[in-house]
Each structure stands twice: as structure tokens, then as C-alpha cells.
Amino acid sequence: MTEYSEGTIQSIAGPLVVARNMKGCQMYEVVRVGEAGLMGETIRLEGQLAYIQVYEDTAGLLPGEKVLRTGEPLSVELGPGIIRNFYDGIQRPLNEIRKQAGDFITRGILIPGLDHERLWEFTPVVTEGAAVVGGDVLGTVQESKVITHKIMVPPGLQGTVVEIRAGSFRLRDTIAILEHMGTHIPLTMTQKWPVRVERPYKKKIDPKIPLLTGQRIYDTFFPIAKGGTAAIPGGFGTGKTVSQHQVARWSDAQVVVYVGCGERGNEITEVLDSFPELEDPKTGHKLIERSTLIANTSNMPVAAREASIYTGVTIAEYYRDMGFDVALMADSTSRWAEALREISGRLEEIPGEQGYPAYLASRLAHFYERAGLVATLGTDERYGSVSIIGAVSPPGGDLSEPVSQNTLRVVSAFWALDASLADRRHFPAINWLRSYSLYLDFTKDWYAHHISPEFRELRARAMVILQQEAELSEIVQLIGPDALPERERLTLDVARMIREDFLQQHAFHKVDSYCPPKKQYHMLKIIMLFNDLAIEALERGMSIDVVSNLSIKDTLSRMKYIANDALESAFADIEVQLRQSFQTAGAAP
Q: Please, what is the Cα angle at 418 between 414 and 419, to 5 degrees?
């Protein structure tokens, strides 16, 4: 075992510890600080001084206590057992900590991220004599009821399989032996990977398939593609967490990684309690059977927020490499930015806007750029994706602050939450005039082929009506809607239908919680058909009051509650009723 130099604590400033006599220490090397062995990471080196951000509470540390180097970067252990697990920011399993230390995390406690004693049934998919390279699948393990874990050759290795075994093994047991240039390399079911280093792949591909969420405001108006990035900024109470829960539960990603980064303890507790109980509509099992959660609360040391972000995205990349579509929820990146600001202040760096470090933009960009649809390593043709949905918590809902603005520059879907919509109980409280998606053009062919060629045209027409409503709103406040021309009154009426009957969605309703894309198309088609028939009726001389009071509008307002297994016939009936209602109203004396 390599021996590393031992330093001593020179000074302590909150989560920042300065150690001397650290000759040979590397940037981002993990160290154990003090008699308690607190985990830390070097973030600056000056001669033999090492500046260390400590991921645990530094209360009680004293100058002169030892600092031990490990010679390794901050890494995560990758292998079977990640799914269904709850971790803290540095991949310590919370359930195991509770068993060993009780309800509170003992400082300096060191528990492996995976259970090394558990037996897993390994089934080989290659035979002895096979030539393999990094990323090739050696065999599989049934990790949960719905996830088949692929045991892969670690990146950078290659050779010939001279031995491979089937049966029940512990994670560190040898399951295969590679021969490369006369050297035998034993392989186990685990890998270690430094969290700050992106896992390699063959090539990154333009994302063209939407990540379907079942939420109408996202799928129809502001879609995100598989391998894409999205941000949900909004003030307190606007619905960031519920929005992310909905995407996590209903999106067609196969694996969900949920990172609670510096959030309130009660919110993290809700996630930890609800995910094991939520029914997964796709598999029929619990959602936790394809999820892993990283819990980092606001009362934990701030430096651990950065570790939780990188731990989460590294785990997501690992499952991407198996060929899965992974959705990563980060709630919220603002808390991570606040940690960067505090550490930067302790380092006495020149501050940027509002005290945030000057490198805030590059850190955010580096995180979001780890999303993507890729061709994975290996000789087979395998594709996987990581989609990152990050919540942003601007103080007072001010989207002009640095975290929101720097996030806006790097993400391709921006779902802006609006406090005024939340106050009116309009959920999801996404402001359709401030939000945008750059994936509309990328995904248009998929929607045209799988849903309808006119789907995007309907979306564009609906957006025009909503924009016209916004332009008319000031006039309405001055003179009232009754003073407007009939055509503009119709615009307001149809805009209200789009807002209330289409965009509003009940997250806790057994039917409306999830709306498949076909249903979204039919709903929007019916609303726009109402608009077209109403325009024709007005041109024939029908009064706008008659149009506004048609009884069919009650049927349209209940479209969202139509069972998802009876779409085609139900909407065909509604279309017939809609046309008949205008014909009947036009024929009346």
C-alpha cells in the first residue's frame, strides 16, 4: 500500500480547512481531516498548503490535528445495488448509517456505497476466448424487479476473456479474467469513477426523440428531448418540487436519479417517503425499483452540495453506458451555487455578480454539458441518454439573478414558473410567454410520425392565441371585455379554454396526472376546431354571446378526465357533438 505524507491543520474557517506540510497533494484529492477523519477534498494548492473543503461539520476541529492524504480523487463506487438506495452527498448509504449510528449521521463515519457482503446472481453473456474492449457487456445481474444491470468492462481496458464464471458472487469477487499482452486482469462487478470526470463514450448525437412526461405544458408546448437539458426556475411555493416529481414519475426514462441538493429537510423527507410508495405506471411496481436518491438537506455542510451534484450525474452516466435513458433531477442548483459562493468567500476570491464566484457560469455549464444522447463504448451498437432537469430557486422569484441567467444560457428548455399563476392555483404554474424550448425543431419529425403531421401546427396556432390574449389584456383592464370587437372577444374565450382546459393539469388526479401525447393532440385539436367553427359562425352573423354560452363548452372542459384507454372513440364523439352544437345554434331563430 502506498504511503502518503501527513499534514496538519493550520486554520479552520467554517467548511474550509487549510492544511500545511501537504507536499505532493493533488487538486481534488480526497483527504481525511482531524482526529474524527472527516472527509474533505482539496480545492486549492499553494506550495505545501492545501485548501480543503470539508463535507462534514467542522465544529470541534483544532489547529494541529492531522490531515491524511488518500491519493485518490473523490469517486463513486458503481455496481449493482445503486438502484433502490438512498445516499447522502458523498455516496454513504443512509439506511446503513441509520443501522450503525442511529438517526443522526456520525461525523467521520465511513461506509461503502455498495453492500460488499450481498450475493448477486451473475449471468455471463460472453464466452471464454472472446475479445472485449472497454464498455463491452460481460454479463447481467437482476438489480431490481425492473432493472437488469449490465456488468461492463471498465473504460480503458481490453483483452481476451480467458475465464468467466456464472453464479452468485459478492461485488468484489472475481467474475472474469482478461488477458492483455500477457498480463491477467481480474474483473469484478464494481467500478470506481472520479465524479468530476465525465465518463467516456464513442460520440454524442443530436437528440431527436422527446422525453415524454405526460404533462401537457411540457410535451406539447416546451418539450425536452432525451439527452436534453431543462431548467425549472421559480420562487418559493410555485411548484418546482412537484413538477420534478411529476417528470420523475411519468417520464419515459428507464432510470431516475433524484438529487436533493441543499433542499429543506421536510421536502427531502417527502421524497424519501413517497418514492418507495409511488406506483410506477409503466412497470406496475414501485417507482423506487428504477430510482436512486441522493439526499442533501439545507442543514448539512454546504460543501457536500457540490459532491451530491457530481455524484448524481456520475451515477446517471453509468446507467447511460448500459444503454438506458436516464432522467436526472437536481433540486436545486441554486443551493449548489450558494455553496460555491460561501467557499469562494472563504478563499477570499474576487467576487462576481451578487457575490457569486466568477467561475459560476463555467461550473453550471460543465454540469449541464454532461447530459446528452450518446453512442456508448463497446463493440456493440448501444445508445443511452442522460436528461438533466435542474430546479433553480431565485430569491423572490427574480429570474434576472446570476444563477437563473447563467443557467438560461446553457439549457435548451426553460420552464419558467410564475408566482402569479401559482397564486391563482394554476398548476403547473409554467408561464407560457416566458418559457421556451430549442427542441421543437429537433423533435418535430418524431411528433409528425408518431402523433400527427399537424401536431406542431396546432401548437403554433395555440401559442399565437395566447400571445394575442396577452396583448389584449391591458386593453381589457381599461375598457372591459364587452367593449372589444367580437373576434377579439372570441380570442379571449379560446385563450381561456387553452389555459384552463388544456394547460392546467391536476398532479394528484388518477386520470389527469398523466396525459399521453395522443390525448394531448386530440384535446388541442378539439379546442382549435372550436375556434375555427366559432370564427365561421361569427362570419355568418352569429352573436359572440351565443358562441360563448354553447353547452358543448362544458364537455370540452372535461376532456382532460377522459380515460386514457378510450381516446379515439371518445374524441370522435366530442367532435361530432361540437359540429352539431354550432349547426343547431346557427339554425335557431
A: 150
Establish whether the linkage from the previous residue to 332 is cis, with ω within 30° of 0. Answer: yes
Are β-strands 229-233 and 203-205 bridged in parallel, bridged antiparallel, or unpaired? unpaired
Q: Which amino acid is at 114?
A: L
* CA gap 95, 276 in Å, rounded: 13
The phi, psi pair for 21, rounded to 5°, reads 60, 40
Residues 323-335: tens digit of each pLDDT: 999 999 998 899 9
User: How many Cβ atoms sit within 10 Å of the Cβ of residue 446?
Assistant: 17
> Could you identify the residue written with the cell 422569484?
397
- Give kind and range of the element (H or E) at residue 46: strand 38-46
Is the whole-model pTM more than 0.85? yes
pLDDT in tens, 195-238: 999 999 999 999 999 999 999 999 999 999 999 999 999 988 89
DSSP 8-state secondary structure symbol assigned to residue 400: T
Rounded Cα gap, residues 556 and 567, in angstroms: 14
Whole-angstrom distance, CA of residue 326 vs CA of residue 251:
10
From CA 340, how far away is CA 359, in angstroms rounded? 9
Using CA atoms, how far apart are residues 275 and 290, in angstroms rounded to an integer?
A: 10
Spatial CB neighbours of 28, under 8 Å, sequence gap ≥ 6: 41, 42, 43, 73, 74, 194, 196
Greatest CA span in the chain, whole angstroms?
97
Nearest to 370 by CA among 253, 201, 210: 201
Q: What is the DSSP string of 484-546?
A: S-HHHHHHHHHHHHIIIIII---TTSTTTT---HHHHHHHHHHHHHHHHHHHHHHHTT--HHH
Question: Grid coordinates standing for 148?
Answer: 437488469
Q: Tell how strand 86-87 and strand 49-54 pair up.
A: unpaired
